[in-house]
Write a structure and sequence with these properties.
It is a single chain. This protein has 165 residues and is α+β, with helices and mostly antiparallel strands. It has one domain: Aminopeptidase (3-Layer(aba) Sandwich), CATH 3.40.630.30. Helices cover 28% and strands 32% of the residues. The protein is built from four helices and seven strands. Strands 1-2-3-4-5-7-6 form a seven-stranded mixed beta sheet, sandwiched between helices. Strand 2 (50-57) and strand 3 form a beta hairpin. The longest helix has 17 residues, at 102-118. The chain starts with 5 loop residues before the first strand and ends with a strand.
Length: 165
């Protein structure tokens, strides 16, 4: 019998588990711990500017994705998320222990799109490092098309968008 994956909104009790269960990994953001960054995300979710979706099964947290309705002050980009009809999918992460498959990522993306449509979002955007060809291929398979390239100090970013009307 296949195991059941539940997708739900993040809550405060997920703070420690996102790191402990191996969903949020890698070097922390500059001048912050992962826990500090996750607290910021949860605060933005409470304010209605961001939704954090968690995939979970009996083994623990499997992945997460965020739907950013409006970017934080200082990071405004109306082409990426304008608070009205354009929102950004961000931070798609899957547990890296060899047991979480790509289907969990697809389920999270499908749920983000469903929530976006309920909020009358017409365009969903997504940003990826240009050197991650596997992720770019996956974004294209979900129907996203490249619309902008942006230089960052250490990498080039490709912005993708998809109409979800």
């Amino acid at each position: 019998m296949a195991h059941k994956v539940f997708i739900r909104f993040a809550q405060a009790s997920d703070l420690e588990r996102l790191v402990k269960d191996g969903v949020v990994t890698g070097p922390p953001p500059p001048k912050e711990t992962w826990n500090q960054r996750i607290v910021k995300w949860l605060t933005e979710q409470r304010a209605g500017r961001r939704y954090i979706l968690i995939a979970e099964d009996a083994s623990g947290l499997l992945g997460m994705v965020q739907l950013v309705i409006k970017l934080p002050v200082g990071y405004e980009d109306p082409e990426a998320a304008n608070g009205m009809d354009v929102a950004m999918m961000e931070g798609l992460r899957l547990r890296h222990d060899g047991t979480t498959n790509a289907e969990v990522g697809t389920e999270l993306v499908t749920e983000v799109q469903r929530i976006a449509m309920k909020r009358n979002i017409k365009t969903l955007t997504f940003c990826l490092p240009m050197n991650n060809s596997r992720a770019i291929h996956q974004a294209r398979s979900w129907g996203f098309e490249e619309f902008r390239i942006m230089a960052e100090p250490t990498k080039m970013l490709a912005f993708f968008r998809k109409s979800i009307e």
